[in-house]
Amino acid sequence: MNRAELFATRLFRQGMLTTHADLETAFLRSVGFQAQNQRAAELNVALQTGVSHTALLAFYRKQGIVRSWAQRWTIQLLTPADLRVIVSARQQERLPKAYFLGVEDHVKAAATELDRLLQTVGSLNRAAATKQLQATFSWYADRPKNFDYAVLQVLTAQGRLQMLPTASTQDWQLVTPGTVRLLEAVQDL
Known about the structure:
By secondary structure, the chain is mainly alpha-helical. The protein has one domain. The protein is built from nine helices and six strands. The strands form two sheets. Strands 1-3-2 form a three-stranded antiparallel sheet. A three-stranded antiparallel sheet has the order 4-6-5.
């Protein structure tokens, strides 16, 4: 087998060359779908399954698919179990200093506060998270441009945060890892 055949075989086994997989198989065959933005990750799923966006959103709710910030600021769509595997495997890694934007103490303080709030309420949208952090920290209004994403990175790396994939990338919906099943149960009522 030459390199091209080996590459094609690997792509085929990962489901990248088939459009006949069902949604569940597509998510179980690989550990997440990664892209620079969520739409690209969803297109990857659609290429493998041929499913409509409406059906994909329904699948998110039914199966508890979560969205996560991976390192290097990429979006990943994952099953909750796959996210736990990734977080566990990366426990010894350290986030690069550049992620902290020169204000590491503030990032860690905001992450601690956001985690405390999430443990209390279970789910937060971006506006509620911003409001709470502004009320808690006087310096928050003058934070660096990508500060909020650094906070999300810290919490994701610790396995303390997931995002619902049905929310937009600008108005994210943050949940604790155990909340996805709770939200799923409420939607089924």
